[in-house]
Amino acid sequence: METRRGSITIGVLLVLLGGWFLAVQLVPGLETWADTFAEWPMWVVAVGALFLVAAVVSGISGLAVPACIIGGIGGILFYMNRTGDWQGWAYAWTLIIGFAGLGAFLDNLLQGRFRKAVREGLNPIVTSLILFLIFSTIFREWVFNQPSLLGPYWPALLILWGLWLMVRPMFRRRRRAMDADDELV
Q1: In terms of C-beta density within 10 A (0-12 exposed, 13-18 middle, 19 or more buried), how is residue 136 classed?
Q2: Ranges assigned E (strand) in the chain
Q3: Predicted model pTM
Q4: Of 16, 68, 132, 171, which has the highest C-beta tally within 10 A?
């Protein structure tokens, strides 16, 4: 059964890839559009998309994690290539944690486990966004002398994050009790 899935997955990917190259040759304006839009970072995004297609087609949902990480990094590279804001890597790396969380969310969602998807995916995504906002504020204001996203209010984000970390264990106890009830059914 696994060999059949792998064969189907590779077949679908080859059909998509061949279809793209055939369309570029047959549709005159498509190559021009691809040259202007599909800069080199979009190839990184495309690899992430192929991993995601492979995850869905093959039923190997774990491929959603590298798909999101690769595609997300490609998205960051695309933004930086377009804007020239390469110094943003000083804080953009924090988003990779969120990409892994999104991948974990999709992995569990593809397996039909919505609760587990939220539980395993939401924390890294929120942590990533908070770290991104904090690091971007610190680097943009103090290192690059640029206006930050949060202005002088970024310490409030640290306070809220600290409160969340203190309150979160209370939700875990309640969740464990709910999960135990689900196992009994």
Answers
A1: buried
A2: none
A3: 0.73
A4: 68
Q: How far apart are CA 140 and CA 131, in angstroms?
A: 14
Q: Is 98 exposed, middle or buried (0-12, 13-18, 19+ CB in 10 A)?
A: buried
Cα distance between residue 163 and residue 33, in whole Å:
48
CA distance 27 to 31: 8
Alpha carbon distance 9, 63 (integer Å): 12
- Using CA atoms, how far apart are residues 102 and 70, in angstroms rounded to an integer? 12
Structural domain spans, the chain: 39-184
Contact assessment for residue 85 and residue 53, using Cβ atoms and an 8 Å cutoff:
no
Phi, psi of 138 (to 5 degrees): -60, -50
The predicted-structure confidence for 145-175, as pLDDT tens digits, reads as follows 777 777 777 788 888 888 888 887 887 666 6
Q: How far apart are CA 97 and CA 109, in angstroms?
A: 18
Record the tokens describing residue 11, joined without a space.
């077949």
3-state SS class at 56: helix
